[in-house]
Amino acid sequence: MNSYRVPQLAKKYTDYDMIRQHTEIPSFPDSRARLLQVFVGRTDEKVHQELYALATSLVQLAMDTHDRIDTISGERREQEMRSRQLNVLAGDYLSSRFYQLLAHAGKIEMIGKLSAAVSEVNARKMTLYERMKKLLVSADEYLRETVQLRMQLFLSFTGMFQHNEESLWNSLLTEFSSCETIVEELKRMNDQQQYLHSYAYWHIYEHGNDDERNVLRQSEPDARAWNAMVLKHRVGEVLLDKLRECTHRIQLLLQDEEGRMGLQEIHAILEPYLAYLQPSHAAVRED
C-alpha cells in the first residue's frame, strides 16, 4: 500500500496564521486525491503520483476558497471585509502553488490540462448559478451538477490510465465525489452560514408548500423555521440513503475487480463513509 500523506503536505501551503484568523480553508478533497494517487501509482508516471494528487488538491482548494467570496452588495463589518479579502488572496495563493509545483517538475502539459479543467468548471458553475438564481434547479440536478464540478479537475488524468482501467476510474471517481458531496451537504444542512442554496434548500423548495417556499425566498430564513422544515421533509434521511447507495455501488465495483492491485487502498478510502452510516453516527447527523 502506498503511503498517503497529501493532506499533510498541503498544510505547508494552507496553515498560515493570517488565513486561520480571518477565513477558513474548505474541506480537503481527500477521497479524490487519494483515489488519484492510487490510479497514477499504476502508471509509468507513478513517481509523480504524490505530486499530481497534491497539485490537483491545491487547485481544488483554490476554487473552493474563491467560491466562499460573497457577492452581496452593501456595507460590511471590518471582520467580514478582512475575511472576504483573505478568501480572494488565499485562493490566488493556492493557485500559484499548483503552477509552481508542476512547473518545477517540468509537467507543463499537465498545467495546461488542469487549467483547461478550471475553465470548464467555471463555465459549468456559471450555468448552474444562473439556473439557481431563477429558482429552476431541482434537488437532484443540484446534487448531480455539484458532483460533476468536484470531478472535473481529476478527470484531467483519465487519458493517463490504461484503457481497461478508465471505466473503473470514472466510476469510482463519480461515486467517491458523490460521497464527499453528500457528507458536505449533511453538514451544510445544519450550518446557518451555509444552508442557503444547499441540497436541503432545493429539496425543500421542490417538495414544500407555498409558505415554505416563501420562507426560503428570504435572504436569511429564520433558523427555527429552517430546522422545522429540514425535519419535516426528512432531508437528513434522504441524504443518508443516497450515501448508502453510493457506498453500495463502490463495494460492487470493488467486488468485480477483486485481485487487482491497489484495491486495499480504495477500501481504506471507503471506510470513513461506511463508518458515517453506522447507527451511532447516523443518529447524530439527523439531530
Secondary-structure map with pairings?
Elements: H1 6-14, H2 17-22, H3 30-40, H4 49-66, H5 78-104, H6 108-133, H7 139-151, H8 163-189, H9 199-207, H10 210-217, H11 223-232, H12 235-256, H13 263-276, H14 279-285
Pfam family, one: HEPPP_synt_1
Enzyme class: transferase
EC number: 2.5.1.30
Please characterize this protein's 3D structure.
The protein is an all-alpha fold. The chain has a single domain (6-285), classed as Farnesyl Diphosphate Synthase (Orthogonal Bundle), CATH 1.10.600. Helices cover 72% and strands 0% of the residues. It has 14 helices and no strands. The longest helix is centred in the first third of the chain and has 27 residues, at 78-104. The chain is globular, with a radius of gyration of 20 Å. It starts with 5 loop residues before the first helix and ends with a helix. Pfam families: HEPPP_synt_1.
Q: Provide a count of the helices.
A: 14
State the distance separating the first and last CA atoms. 37 Å
Q: Could you describe the largest sheet, including whether it forms a barrel?
A: none
CATH third-tier fold name: Farnesyl Diphosphate Synthase
CATH class assignment: Mainly Alpha
**CATH homologous group name:** Farnesyl Diphosphate Synthase
Mean pLDDT: 87
Number of strands: 0
Multimeric organization = single chain
Shape by Cα distribution: globular
Which structural class do you get from the secondary structure elements?
mainly alpha
Q: Considering DSSP H and I runs of 4 or more, what fraction of the residues is helical? A: over 70%
Order of helices and strands: HHHHHHHHHHHHHH
Q: Can you name the CATH architecture?
A: Orthogonal Bundle
Enzyme class: transferase
EC number: 2.5.1.30
InterPro entries: HEPPP_synth_su1
Keywords: Transferase
